[in-house]
C-alpha cells in the first residue's frame, strides 16, 4: 500500500534574527543589528516575496546574504541555520546582490560639487601633505570558479587562477567612489582605466583634483604615478608622500575583504552573479563606513593581512604631457 503521509518539512522553523541580542547577531552575521535593520529598510520594498508556500521575510533574506558574503561559509550551513534549502539561499543571495547593484549609484559616487571635491582633497592632504588628490586608484583580483565556456582562459591572471580584475577608486576614508567589475583577470590595470568612463570624465575636466596610481598606470596630467629613478630631494619627498597617500586604496581593499570574506576567498557562483555580488559588497562597505560600523571583534588589528598580495604589473611609460605636468607639480609643491 502506498504511504501518502507527508513528511514534516524540516525547513519551516524560522526565527527572526533581529530578535537576537546585538552581541549574538554580530557573532553570527559579523554586523550589528542597527546595520542589518538599515539594510532591510532600504531593500524591503524590493524584497517582495511570493505568498505561496512558505515565503522568506525581507529580514531573513538580508541576513542570509550578509552571512554568506561576510563569513564565506558553505550555503548548506546558512540554509540549515535559517530553516531553508541551499537553492533558496543561492537564489536569495543572487536577488539581494541584484537589488544592491541596481542601487549602487546612490552609494558609490565621485564627489561632484566643488565643496565635495575640496573636502576630499583636504582629507587626502592631511595624510602626507600631498595636494590636490581626489582619489587613489588600483585594481584587485577577485577569485572566481574556473570558467569552462569559450574564452574561459582569459579569466586566468598572471598568478594562474581565474579572477575578475576589479578597478576601484577610493577616498581618504576608505570609501569606494568608483568601481569597474566587467574585466577578466588577464586584462592589465592600465587597459581597464583607459577604457573606463571615469577617464573620460577626467579628460572632460569634471574634477578639480588628480588620481594617484602605481607604476602599472601611465602618468598623465590627471593620474600621477611614482618616480622610478630618483635624483633630487624634491623627487624623494614626492615619492614618500605619494606612497603614503596612495596606500589608502590598499587599506580599502584590506578592510573591504575583511568585512566580506567572499572577496578574499573567492566566488562560487556564475560570473554575472559574481560581478553583482562584488558591487553589492562595495555598497555595503560604504554604508558600514558611513554608519561607523566596527570591524568584527578581535580582527581590527589585522586588516593588512587580508589585502591580497598584488599581482605585479609591467611598468607603463608616462605620456609626454603627463611627465611634464608631474615635473611642474614637483617643482611647485615639493621644494
Automatic annotation (TrEMBL):
<dbReference type="InterPro" id="IPR045249">
    <property type="entry name" value="HARBI1-like"/>
</dbReference>
<comment type="similarity">
    <text>Belongs to the HARBI1 family.</text>
</comment>
<dbReference type="GO" id="GO:0004518">
    <property type="term" value="F:nuclease activity"/>
</dbReference>
<dbReference type="Pfam" id="PF13359">
    <property type="entry name" value="DDE_Tnp_4"/>
</dbReference>
<keyword id="KW-0539">Nucleus</keyword>
<dbReference type="GO" id="GO:0046872">
    <property type="term" value="F:metal ion binding"/>
</dbReference>
<dbReference type="InterPro" id="IPR027806">
    <property type="entry name" value="HARBI1_dom"/>
</dbReference>
<keyword id="KW-0479">Metal-binding</keyword>
<keyword id="KW-0378">Hydrolase</keyword>
<keyword id="KW-0540">Nuclease</keyword>
<feature type="domain" description="DDE Tnp4">
    <location>
        <begin position="137"/>
        <end position="286"/>
    </location>
</feature>
<protein>
    <recommendedName>
        <fullName>Putative nuclease HARBI1</fullName>
    </recommendedName>
</protein>
<dbReference type="GO" id="GO:0005634">
    <property type="term" value="C:nucleus"/>
</dbReference>
<keyword id="KW-0963">Cytoplasm</keyword>
<comment type="function">
    <text>Transposase-derived protein that may have nuclease activity. Does not have transposase activity.</text>
</comment>
<dbReference type="GO" id="GO:0016787">
    <property type="term" value="F:hydrolase activity"/>
</dbReference>
<dbReference type="GO" id="GO:0005737">
    <property type="term" value="C:cytoplasm"/>
</dbReference>
<dbReference type="InterPro" id="IPR026103">
    <property type="entry name" value="HARBI1_animal"/>
</dbReference>
Amino acid at each position: 500500500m502506498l504511504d501518502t503521509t507527508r513528511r514534516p518539512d524540516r525547513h519551516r522553523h524560522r526565527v527572526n534574527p533581529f530578535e537576537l541580542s546585538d552581541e549574538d547577531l554580530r557573532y553570527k552575521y559579523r554586523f550589528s543589528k542597527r546595520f542589518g535593520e538599515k539594510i532591510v529598510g532600504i531593500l524591503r520594498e524590493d524584497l517582495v516575496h511570493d505568498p505561496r508556500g512558505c515565503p522568506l521575510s525581507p529580514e531573513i533574506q538580508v541576513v542570509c546574504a550578509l552571512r554568506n558574503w561576510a563569513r564565506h561559509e558553505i550555503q548548506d550551513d546558512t540554509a540549515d541555520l535559517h530553516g531553508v534549502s541551499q537553492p533558496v539561499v543561492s537564489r536569495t543571495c543572487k536577488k539581494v546582490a541584484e537589488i544592491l547593484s541596481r542601487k549602487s549609484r546612490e552609494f558609490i559616487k565621485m564627489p561632484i560639487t566643488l565643496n565635495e571635491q575640496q573636502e576630499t582633497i583636504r582629507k587626502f592632504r592631511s595624510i602626507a601633505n600631498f595636494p590636490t588628490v581626489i582619489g587613489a586608484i588600483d585594481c584587485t583580483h577577485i577569485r572566481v570558479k574556473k570558467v569552462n565556456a569559450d574564452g574561459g582562459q582569459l579569466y586566468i591572471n598572471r598568478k594562474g587562477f581565474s579572477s575578475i580584475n576589479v578597478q576601484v577608486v577610493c577616498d581618504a576614508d576608505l570609501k569606494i567612489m568608483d568601481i569597474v567589475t566587467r574585466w577578466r583577470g588577464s586584462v592589465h590595470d592600465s587597459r581597464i582605466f583607459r577604457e573606463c568612463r571615469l577617464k573620460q570624465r577626467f579628460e572632460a575636466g569634471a574634477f578639480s583634483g588628480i588620481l594617484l596610481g602605481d607604476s602599472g598606470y601611465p602618468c598623465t596630467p590627471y593620474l600621477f604615478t611614482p618616480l622610478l629613478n630618483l635624483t633630487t630631494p624634491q623627487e624623494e619627498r614626492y615619492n614618500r608622500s605619494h606612497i603614503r597617500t596612495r596606500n589608502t586604496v590598499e587599506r580599502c581593499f584590506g578592510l573591504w575583504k575583511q568585512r566580506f570574506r567572499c572577496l578574499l576567498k573567492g566566488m562560487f557562483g556564475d560570473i554575472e552573479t559574481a560581478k553583482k555580488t562584488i558591487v553589492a559588497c562595495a555598497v555595503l562597505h560604504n554604508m558600514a563606513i558611513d554608519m561607523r560600523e566596527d570591524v568584527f571583534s578581535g580582527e581590527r588589528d589585522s586588516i593588512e593581512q587580508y589585502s591580497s598580495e598584488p599581482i605585479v604589473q609591467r611598468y607603463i611609460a608616462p605620456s609626454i604631457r603627463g611627465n611634464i605636468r608631474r615635473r611642474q607639480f614637483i617643482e611647485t609643491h615639493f621644494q
